[in-house]
């Protein structure tokens, strides 16, 4: 009787451990860490005035395609929902010399702030 009870207990224990392991959804297997945010301000290097309408382009091996945004009236930009990784930011405006900032490390669930000053053409 003891042998039968032990065998039965072991079977129940295996079921209680194995079923939750195999019952995981496909979403759990494809878990992605929380995204990060790249934000900052772009200023004129001579006058220290904010540059409005400047295009900020983010590239990274972590991205399927480039992400871009435009600075607001205060020269601020924000690139949200970016996967963790190493990024390059390119700053472009017709009245200013283009500038690229490479090797920016963005960690999961983190906001990185970068202020850039550009020289007029």
From TrEMBL:
Signal peptide interval = 1-23
Keyword annotations: Signal
Q: Which InterPro entries is this protein grouped with?
A: Carb-bd-like_fold (IPR013784)
Which Pfam families does the record cross-reference, listed alphabetically? Answer: CarboxypepD_reg
Alphabetized SUPFAM superfamilies for the sequence:
Starch-binding domain-like (SSF49452)
The identity of this protein, by name, is Carboxypeptidase regulatory-like domain-containing protein
What is the species of this protein? Answer: Myxococcus landrumensis
């Amino acid at each position: 009787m003891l042998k039968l009870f032990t065998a039965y207990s072991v079977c129940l224990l295996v079921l209680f451990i194995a079923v939750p392991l195999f019952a995981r959804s496909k979403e759990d297997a494809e878990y992605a860490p929380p995204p990060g945010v790249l934000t900052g301000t772009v200023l004129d290097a001579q006058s220290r005035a904010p540059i409005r309408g400047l295009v900020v382009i983010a590239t990274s091996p972590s991205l399927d395609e480039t992400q871009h945004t435009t600075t607001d009236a205060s020269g601020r930009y924000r690139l949200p929902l970016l996967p963790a990784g190493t990024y390059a930011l390119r700053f472009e405006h017709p009245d200013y010399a283009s500038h690229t900032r490479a090797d920016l490390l963005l960690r999961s669930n983190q906001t990185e702030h970068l202020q850039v000053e550009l020289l007029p053409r």
